[in-house]
Fold this sequence. Notes:
By secondary structure, the protein is α/β, with parallel strands linked by helices. 42% of the residues lie in helices and 11% in strands. The protein has 14 helices and 10 strands. It has helices spanning 28-36, 50-61, 78-90, 107-112, 132-144, 167-179, 205-208, 239-255, 261-272, 275-301, 323-328, 334-345, 376-384, 392-413; strands spanning 72-75, 95-100, 117-121, 149-154, 183-187, 213-218, 231-234, 305-306, 314-318, 363-367. The strands form 2 sheets. It has a 7-stranded mixed β-sheet, sandwiched between helices. A 3-stranded antiparallel β-sheet has the order 8-9-10. A hairpin with a 7-residue loop joins strand 8 and strand 9. The protein starts with 27 loop residues before the first helix and ends in a 5-residue tail after the last helix.
Amino acid sequence: MRRTDPAEDHGPVRYGPPLPADGLPVLPELSAVLAAAANRSDAQPVGGAPALLEAACGYWTRRGLPTVPDRVAAGPGAPALLLALTAALAGDGADVLVPRPCAAWWAPYARLLGRPAFHVPTPAEGGGVPDPYALLETVRRVRAEGGDPRLLVLSVADDPTATVTPPELLLETVEAATAEGLHLVSDETWRDTVHDPHQTVLLSPAEMRPDQVTVVTDLAGALLPPGWPAAVARFPATDAGRHLHARVLDILTALGARIAAPVAAATCYALDEPPPVTERREATVRLHARVAAAAHAAVVAAGALARPPQAGRHLYADLGPLREPLAAQGVGDAQELEDLLTARLGLPAPGGHRFGDDLGALRVRLATCPLLGGTEEERTESLTSPAPLDLPHVQRALNALRSAFDDLRDAQRWEPPR
Length: 418
């Protein structure tokens, strides 16, 4: 079985790029709540104070996942929670399964604990959730080699592919995983960033098998700025879930992983979803959806492949069809493609190898945040404009993206004189 061994001579692939930020000014109401709590000197309890846990319960209950406070834990960002969950579920010699590709921050926590992380291919329909048949085959092969797979991490609304897994496919994968005795951690950081919620159905695995799924949500996805780390986890309402919850709190205590008191106050406010928060979230999703669709059109027009983005603030492009002209420019793998596009675009273009894809595959994640403008004023204008794609600074950014990809397309068509 192939593990997630980093390519040591192709860049720092052990630690991937951060979540795609929204790039927008902080919501004033959030800033006011955080500022009002800035003079508090008391520390938040590990796992979150009662008010924060109640707010998390309300957040999930409104999404069809009834929750009680003693089944919730909060931490300073989803990475801290995933580390604690991985240690609790797979720290005693078990193995971890993740999709290929997957969020760049998932696999390092298994490696940190000395556990192998096995990638499972995703289906053509989208990323984030393994193909059910590939999952069963991977479990069989790992066990045949003496392994002990116990944990599967997945994401219905995905980073890096920006796709949303159809419910019928998700059900097949969840049934396959639970039949093999795997515990599922569902990363739902991007569930509130679906571009067209009226046309895209998003279901949580916890709605299908609530007894075997722990949900993790990083509020940097839709509710808080990335610089204010806060995340919440929802545990199954079973004896095993109670034990897992207690074990995770033990690990968070050992790590001293508490949310800072001012950030906790802002987290409570955001999870309650008052009108200023929901209005900003909806406006942000609309903006990034429009820009992502325009970026997708530019990439596809140049001959690259990319699934239409359905969630998040990014898209995932496969430049395999342009391999020949890229090779002429010295690009033969994802790290070299990352270097080329980052230099040409002047914005980060992390290669697919950072998300567990093969180094030889010419794939990159492109974020939409850098296309919104170079200053806070321009990005605010992008947020408030009824036609953001018509703004000069957005047009310039999109034209630069089109030009960079068109150059690759034209290089493919160019033939030297005979």
